[in-house]
Design goal:
This is Anaphase-promoting complex subunit 5. By secondary structure, the chain is mostly helical. Helices cover 79% and strands 0% of the residues.
């Protein structure tokens, strides 16, 4: 019985091999005839194969899969079959040659290994198409990784190579074109991403995937969503005119088809394109109402987030914004929109920093980092590599750097670099953060040449920030004319794009430039303008910094008593939420005002006021030491040496004088009287 089974198996194997050879050496119609013969094997009163048997089920599945193939897919299958047969023939010939030349086996061992390696590489690069399920699993896995944990996805070049190999055998695989589009977005390749996106929708229409599920309406659906995605792509790369044209096309097709969902998406993108207009909030409010009406919680929540962001820039109070975000959070938890929960917390972090509440911002950032994702992701991937986490980590690094914790900031940046490699789509966030921290440290240390070299990198990542930093460096190098021209151009640009925060920062730099040029009276109107803007937009920290500058201007004008009263208004927010450098500046200014006010005191009160000023100078020196700001430490010890000399404390005076001399030899002199330097 066993011998009979083995004999039948050999017969069937030889028949199958003969049929494969016939198809491979013949034409495409031979393969079609093969599948027709398979269908005939189930017919008749006594069929060769029963439909319910294991072999029958397998054959029926194979016939069904073949029937679903398009013409191009059938041709690719036939080409792969020919390649498979040719590879098998090559291996058979090689085995026969090896038997005939066994005497030369030792001499040709190395050549055989090289040949085997080349054959294996050829099989990998020219392997046949994956099954439908294998291809779908590969695409869904990589798409999920690109969304949630880009570091675990294949590198851009490797993934594109795999996709090209997949499309070589099945060019009509629409999902592969879409993943290619996402992959090209990672490397900011506008041409290839546009090409892949258009191919995706072309294949979607040609294969009839949409029309099979949605009838003839599927074709129109593909067209309008193709235009919508094209508009989003152009908007991402800053091609706003092309984006607007594509969006108009999407709206036209969606209106013809009465597709309210597509129209809601178009309405959201209309706001994105026109958010710089003064009436854009009306469009956004309408979008949120419509999204709620049509039951689109994701769009409604994004609209609320955008509305909160816009009102934050418009100067609305923090309690109203947080109430709006609370309503948005209810939507997130109700519908398990974990991604939007992360975005909401990152938004709160940014809003608290905008309003100058660093403690609250730090709390929100840490809350986001401690949260686990609610969305289940394949392969044990956590949803912690999104833009929200990148933003939170960048805020965390900047907050630590502001407090002089540079080692902690470096650790956060190191983690950012590991989590978001340079080729990832959110890497620009930590790159800009890193450059800004390095710039600030170089400026604190008086290394203006190093700071100037960092300006180029900052400008490449954020042009407005780069121009502002360039002006700061020029001002520190006493190139006042060039700095003033640059600041005036930047001021006009920021007013045009309504970047109020930067407008105030530029006004403060202009005011500093005026008093360093011995023109404090010209600085006063500029500072009052900055204070009015800070109050109007409720930027508390910038308002406190502006008051600090006003107090300094009054000190220069010879009214230290009024400067001290102003300082009492501004110093509390600075000491509570300010950066360490600003705390030091504030305490240094208090000491200067105390000394200037003590000039008219009687000797006992004057000595007491000078002792209090020395204590404040010690506190300012400690703050400056935390951020390694040697230039300001030099100014403090110079001032202390003068005060100790007035009080007759020779030993303390000599100690401060020696420290001043060491720092003065190490650092370049800025050439400005110390009283004119805040």
């Amino acid at each position: 019985m066993g011998r009979c089974s083995k004999g039948l198996l050999k017969i069937h194997t030889s028949i199958f091999s003969f049929r494969i050879k016939l198809m491979a050496e013949g034409e495409l119609k031979d393969m079609e005839q093969f599948f027709d013969d398979l269908s005939d094997s189930f017919s008749g009163t006594e069929p060769e194969v029963h439909k319910t048997s294991v072999v029958g089920l397998f054959l029926r599945h194979m016939i069904l899969a073949y029937s679903k193939l398009s013409f191009s897919q059938v041709f690719k299958l036939y080409t792969a079959l020919q390649q498979y047969f040719q590879n098998g023939e090559k291996k058979t010939v090689e085995d026969a040659d090896m038997e005939l030349t066994s005497r030369e086996e030792g001499e040709r061992k190395m050549e055989k290994e090289e040949l085997d390696v080349s054959i294996r590489e050829e099989e990998v690069s020219c392997s046949g198409p994956l099954s439908q399920k294998q291809a779908e699993f590969f695409l869904s896995q990589q798409a999920s990784l690109l969304k949630n944990d880009e570091t675990k996805a294949l590198p851009p070049a490797s993934l594109q190579k795999e996709l090209n190999n997949l499309l070589k055998f099945n060019p009509d695989f629409a999902e592969a074109h879409y993943l290619s589009y996402l992959n090209n977005l990672r490397v900011q390749d506008v041409f290839s991403s546009t090409h892949s996106l258009l191919h995706y929708f072309d294949r979607l229409i040609l294969t009839g995937a949409e029309s099979k599920s949605n009838g003839e309406e599927g074709y129109g659906r593909s067209l309008r969503y193709a235009a919508l995605n094209l508009a989003a792509l152009h908007c991402r790369f800053g091609h706003y005119q092309q984006a607007e044209l594509a969006l108009q096309e999407a709206i036209r097709i969606a209106q013809e088809s009465n597709d309210h969902v597509c129209l809601q998406h178009c309405l959201s993108w209309l706001y994105v394109l026109g958010q710089k207009r003064s009436d854009s909030y009306v469009l956004l409010e309408h979008s949120v109402k419509k999204a709620v009406h049509f039951g689109l919680p994701y769009l409604a929540s994004l609209g609320i987030q955008s509305l909160v962001q816009q009102r934050a820039f418009a100067g609305k109070t923090a309690n109203k914004l947080m109430d709006a975000l609370k309503d948005s959070d209810l939507l997130h938890w109700k519908h398990s929109l974990s991604e939007l929960i992360d975005i909401s917390i990152a938004q709160k972090t940014a809003i608290w920093r905008l309003y100058g509440r660093s403690t609250m911002a730090l709390q929100q950032a840490q809350m986001l980092l401690s949260m686990n994702s609610l969305e289940s992701v394949n392969a044990g991937v956590q949803q912690n590599n999104t833009e929200s986490f990148a933003v939170a980590l960048c805020h965390l690094a900047e907050l630590h750097a502001e407090q002089g914790c540079f080692a902690a900031a470096s650790e956060v940046l190191k983690h950012l670099k590991e989590r978001f490699p340079p080729n990832s789509q959110h890497a620009q966030l930590w790159m800009l953060c890193d450059q800004k921290i390095q710039f600030d440290r170089a400026m604190h240390d008086g290394k203006y040449h190093l700071a100037d070299s960092l300006v180029t990198g900052i400008t490449a990542l954020h042009s407005t920030e780069g121009v502002y930093r360039k002006a700061v460096v020029l001002q520190a190098q006493n190139q006042m004319t060039e700095a003033h021209k640059l600041l005036q151009k930047l001021l006009i640009h920021c007013q045009k794009i309504r970047n109020t925060e930067m407008v105030i920062s530029v006004l403060l730099s202009v005011a500093e430039l005026y008093w360093r040029s011995s023109s404090p009276t010209i600085a006063l109107p500029v500072l009052l303008q900055a204070l009015a803007l800070s109050k109007e937009y409720r930027l508390q920290y910038l308002a406190s910094e502006t008051v600090l500058n006003l107090a300094f201007a009054q000190l220069i004008l010879g009214i230290p008593e009024q400067a001290l009263s102003l300082l009492h208004m501004a110093i509390e927010p600075i000491l509570a939420d300010g950066a360490v450098l600003d705390k030091g500046r504030a305490m240094f200014l208090v000491a200067k005002c105390q000394v200037a006010s003590a000039a008219s005191y009687d000797p006992p009160n004057k000595a007491e006021a000078l002792e209090a000023a020395i204590e404040n100078l010690n506190e300012a020196k400690n703050y400056f030491a935390k951020v390694d700001c040697k230039e300001r430490i030099r100014d403090v010890v110079y001032f202390q040496a003068r005060l100790y000399h007035t009080l007759g404390k020779t030993q303390e005076r000599n100690r401060c004088a020696m420290l001043f001399r060491q720092l003065h030899q190490e650092l370049p002199s800025h050439g400005v009287p110390l009283i004119n330097h805040l």
